[in-house]
Structures are given as structure tokens and as C-alpha cells.
Amino acid sequence: MRNDAGSADEWQSLRLHNRLYAQAAKLARIGAWECDLADEHLTWTDGVYDLFGLPLGGPLSRRTIVDLYTERSRRELELVRADALRRGHGFVLESEIRTWRGQTRWIRITADIASLAGRPVRLFGLKQDITDEREEWTRLRHRAEHDALTGLANRGRFDAHCRAMASDARTRGSVAALVLIDLDDFKPINDRLGHAAGDECLRQAALRLRRVFRDAVLVARIGGDEFAVLLRAPLGPTRIAQMLARASAALCQPILWNDARLAVGASIGATILGPARNAAEAFAEADAALYAAKAAGRNAVRLHGAGEPPPLATESDQRGRAGRQAG
């Protein structure tokens, strides 16, 4: 009788522990998994089925499951897995998957290796849904790297990219030119009409820069009324000069605010980059070009070593030229 009672108590305790584990695993969106390396047979708990959106207890094929990973994550998984088996140690990896139902999720894979006579025989571990964690991290990173007023990249992100350019020739080679922009007559508007008017000027300037430099590597607000642009390579001097002239024309258009037309222009300085250029020297050259533009007067543009870019032809200029050619 006591043996039967003891077995019943043990069974009841085991059921309780299994229920507690299942509840905790569901709360943490986590599941356990195992892969037999002899035949790649997979064993999953319910939590992993839920992660991948598959029917509970359904047949599992590693090839089919791996196809649910995005291409980049699949490539990374296979490299990390092969390296772990070769070295005989576990790994932790964050991967992006598309569930069987088409949802995008991020999972954290924690893996260890069971060996027999020095040979790996099983991979086992945990898989956890970290989609919310990744989204929160992305939001925090966006806040840390972007200007709250304009939505452009901030000075920190601009400086980080410049540091990457200084240490990586491939990053450096992807940038054709560094452009520095300083708004003209911004301070009088800010002082006379208040910060609300000044903020609207900055927002509108940011929108116009985004439109003109929509293919740029980076458009950033790096100071109060100062902006910086890294133009994507390849671009020649003529094309760069045309883009700078277009930016100047866009920025000098009046800004409507509370039934008032605010006149704001911009001084622009730039320098051409290349794979061998030093980022600090390039910034000094662009800054010198900006200084020369400001010294030349309102709405001036200077490209280091090239003087002032030719102005863009307006629509009336183009119509007049077409008429003269026809005559």
C-alpha cells in the first residue's frame, strides 16, 4: 500500500512539475529541442512548434525547417552550427524566421552538444521568441541614432559612420562626397518668431534635403541649423555639383508658417571623397568650402577645389533654350 501511495505521490509531483514547466515555457515563449546527428531527426516540445507556427506533434524535417529561416539567418546558422560541431562547443544565435503561417519572428537559439567517445552525437537546447525584444531594441536604437525633431540621423550616427569610413576602405569607397549645409538667416527667425517657427524651418529643411538626396548614404542633422550629407558613390564632380545646386534651390524656397512666408536659405560646402581619402581631412575640406560659401553671401555653394557649381537651369530657361534652338 505504502509503495502504491508513494508511486502515486511521485506521479502527482511529476505532473505538477511538468505543468509548471509548460506554463513557464509558454509565458517565456520558449521551447526545448534536440537533433540526432546520425539522421538529423528532430524532437521538439510544444513551445518550438508554436514558435514556427506548425501543428503540434506534426512530422519534422530539418531541411523543411531550415527553409523557414530567412536567407541571411539560414546562412549564418549553418556556418555557426558547423563551427560548433567542429570545435565541440555550444553556441547562442539570434535568427529571423518566417513561420509556416507567414509571420516574421526573431528567435534566440541556445545550443549545446552531447558527445560519445569524443564524437558529437546530439545537438540540443532552447529556442525562444525574442521578436518583442528585438523590436524594442530597434526602437531604442532608432531613438539613439536619430534627431527627434527632424527624424534625420543625428551627430552620433554621423560620427560613427565617419569612424567606419576611417577604418574600412569598403565603407570609404561607398561614399562619393561629403556635404555640409548651414541654414542662412535661421537665427533671426528663431529670435523674432520663437522656437516653434525655428523648429518648422528645421523640419522643412530636413524634408527638402531628404527629397534632393534621396539616394544618399546618410543625411544627418549635426548641430542646431547644421546638416551633413554623405553622397553615395559612384558620382562624378559634375553630377555632385548639380545635386548641390538643386539642394540650394530647394532650401531657398520660402517656408509657410502661420500665414507667414519665412525666407531661409543655405550655404553649402562639399568635398569629393575616394577610397584613399582620410575622413578627418575630408571634413576639414568640406568645412573650409562651407566657410567660403558663407563668406560669398547668402545661398552660395562651394565644392572644394572646384569653386562654385553652375546653377541649375529653370523650366523657363529650358523653354527659352528650346525656342532658340527651334528658331
Automatic annotation (TrEMBL):
Pfam family, one: GGDEF
Stretches assigned to the GGDEF domain: 174-306
Region (Disordered): 303-327
PAC domain mapped to chain residues: 91-142
Gene3D superfamilies (UniProt xref): 3.30.70.270, PAS domain
Protein name from the UniProt record: GGDEF domain-containing protein
Upper classification of the organism: Bacteria, Pseudomonadati, Pseudomonadota, Alphaproteobacteria, Hyphomicrobiales
